[in-house]
Amino acid sequence: MDTLIGDIRRTVASFARPDLRKGILQLFTSFGPFLAACAAMYLVYPIAPLLSLALAVPTGALLVRVFIVQHDCGHSSFFASNWANVVVGRVCSVVTLTPFANWARQHSMHHGNWNNLDRRAGSDLYSACLTVREYEAMTPWKRWLYRLPRHPLIANLILPPLVFVVLYRLPFDTPRTWKREWRSVWLTNAAILAIFGALVLAVGWRQVLLIHLPIMVVASILGVWLFSLQHRFESTYWARRADWSPFEAAMRGSSWFALPRVLHWLTGNIGFHHIHHLNTRVPNYRLSSAHEAIRPLYRVQPLSLMGGLRAPWLTLWDEATGRLVRFRDVRPQSA
Predict the structure, then answer these.
(1) Cα 211 from chain centroid?
(2) Would you say the pTM of this structure is higher than 0.85?
């Protein structure tokens, strides 16, 4: 088994080389369609406001692709040059409303803890969970408080826009010693204020609000849904520290979301999340090729689109059966 793992790691590592041509091309195919869609919304709004609102759906989906570019830059995998990754990541952060350095460092902590039952971030609604035993040990009131923000309506529809539009404006969960990350928040806010302030002066606050707020609502809901199912799905793997393996956590605890090719393009190939966790230096535009290269060596169970739609209801890890379950599958005695 160790030999097989070594072969798989070496195979994936061979794709951990940024390609300047592909990176530049993806910048054009990410920012280009997104900016064109934004321009279309501005042109349509004075004539047909409802049509402009409808266009927020494809425009928000295109913004997800821009966020994946920022995500790769945070891992220093999009370009070979660290300087280029930082510059592009900061540019992305202005349109995604997500402070580049602060988000990247917070996200790096996730890559040290994923699917480890003894190293869970308690505030993480989307890639961590309680075990059934821990949930049953709570009082009824604490169980209700735990369940409320994790209801799919709240966790996947209401909270995502609030996180991106409001919470990311403040470094509330950033340690004081993270000076660079604090600056990232304030500088991103300043850039957002300057750009949107100019737009308000040009076309008015109402039009700017009714165009960009729906875009962020759509993008944040889609993005958070994709993030939530990367580690919480029916066939996932969680383990205690003594049994936790980074290889198994990557290949079994991180999803291969088997989407149609056009949706892989739209989501920046983030559905090949098992490859990303196996080697974070593989740029998103090479994840698919890395996945195909290891398929003869290791079979990864795909997550279907229907499975992805069911994933938000999977909220508790049952150590007895080794699977994620829904709240309604658990009936504590004191409930």
Answers:
(1) 23
(2) yes
